[in-house]
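Quick illustration for those who missed Monday's session on complexes.
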Amino acid sequence: MIDRPLQLPGGARLKNRIVKSAMSEALADARNDPTEGMIALYKRWGQSGAALLITGNTPVDRDHLEHAANVVLDERSDPEKTRRLAAAARSGGALALVQIAHSGRQTPEAINARPLSISDKALDLPGYGTPRMASEDELQAVIGRFAMAARLAQKAGFDGVEVHGAHGYLLSSALSPRINTRKDRWGGSLTNRSRLLREVIRAVRAASGTDFVVAAKLNSSDFQKGGFTHEESIETARMLEREGVDFLEISGGTFETPVAYQHTAQKQSTAQKQSTAAREAYFLDYARDIKKALGIPVMVTGGFRSAAVMRQALAEGATDLIGMGRPFILDPAFPRKLLAGDIAATPAPERGFPPAEALPRGAVLNWFCHQLALQSTRGKADPDLPIIEGHDRYLDRIASSTAGLLAARAAAPC
Ligand SMILES: Cc1cc2nc3c(=O)[nH]c(=O)nc-3n(C[C@H](O)[C@H](O)[C@H](O)COP(=O)(O)O)c2cc1C
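Prediction with flavin mononucleotide bound:
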C-alpha cells in the first residue's frame, strides 16, 4: 500500500504515500534566502522517491524567526533563489510545499525581545523574550503575511503550502486556552481560539486559488496541563476540513513539551496498552480518532521507521500518508530503497541515544540539525558522531548565524 498513489481533494496526485515532513534546515544566508547547499539538498530529496516534500519552518515575518538561519518568504525574499529551491525540490517528480509559519512567543530573544503573540504569556524557557499581545490590526497583518507568502510560493513554482498550526508557534499558541487568555473574538471558546488559524487558511486559499495545495499541521494535543486537548484537536480538524484544506498533518507538543520527535520507547505501562504500530508511530492512535472524524486525507508524522508498521497503519485506515523527518537526514535516498523492498526499515540512529532526561535540552534535535548541515555541505551524514558533539556543533553554528544576521541587519536596517 505504501506505493499506492493518492489524489488530494483539490486534484493534486501523490505518486505514493511517503512524505518528507518539515525540518527546519538552518541553511539560509544572512538575508534569509536559500543557500546553494540547501538547494542541492532539496534536489537530492526531490529524487529520493518520496511523493511529497514539505520544506522546513519558513517564517512569513522576519521579526518572528524560529532561528537566525530560517528561509523567510516575504516581499524581500530573492524570487530567483526561491524559484530555484522549488525547481530543485520538484526535479525528481515529487510535489513540494512550503511550510509557512509565524514563531510568535517562540521567537528567540536575540532576534526579538518583544515578539508578537496571542497574549503576553511568556514561554517557560530561558532565551525567549516577553511577548506582546497582538492587537486586532496586528492579527489582520499576520493573516495578510501568510497570504502573501502563499502567493510568493505559488509564483516560485511550489505546488502548495502547509500552514504550521502545531508545536506552539503563533497559530498553535492561539489554540491553547493556557496561552490564549484573550477576552475578545480571538480568545475564549474553541471557535474563537481557532479563528486565527481558520482565517489564515481562508486568506491563503483566497490568495492562491483552488489549484494550489493548502495543508495544515495540527497538534493531536499540546500534552500540557490546561493546553489544547485531543478532543479540541478533533473538533478543530473538522473546522479545518470545512475551510477546504487538502490534508491535515498530525503531530503534537510545543517547545515546552517537545514530544514531536521522541526517540525512546514509551513507558511500559503506556506501551502495553498500545499496538506495535502505535508504539513506533507515537501519534498514530490520536490520528486514528481524528481521521474517523474527517473525509479529507490525514498524514501522521512521528516515529515511522519500519515498512511493516507503515503498511499496517495504512491498511488499518489510521492514516493516508506516512510523514517522516529524521530518516531523510541520515539517508536522503531511503524511500526508493524502501519502496523497492531493498530495506525493511529506515535508518534510526536515535534509538541508540540515551533518554532525553539524561541529555542536555534539545540534544537529539540539535544532533540531527548538525547532520542535516553535513548532508548539505559534504553530501553525507556522520552517524558515528557522538551526540554531544553534534549538539555543540549545531549550537556554535546557530550562534554564528545569529551574529551574522544581527550584523547584516545593523548594516542595512529593515
Ligand atoms: C532537525 C529537525 C527539524 C525539524 N523542524 C521542523 C519544522 O521546521 N517544522 C515542523 O513542523 N516540524 C519540524 N520537525 C519535526 C518533524 O517534522 C517531525 O514531526 C518529527 O521529526 C517526527 O518525525 P520523525 O520521527 O520521522 O523524525 C523537525 C524535526 C527535526 C528532527
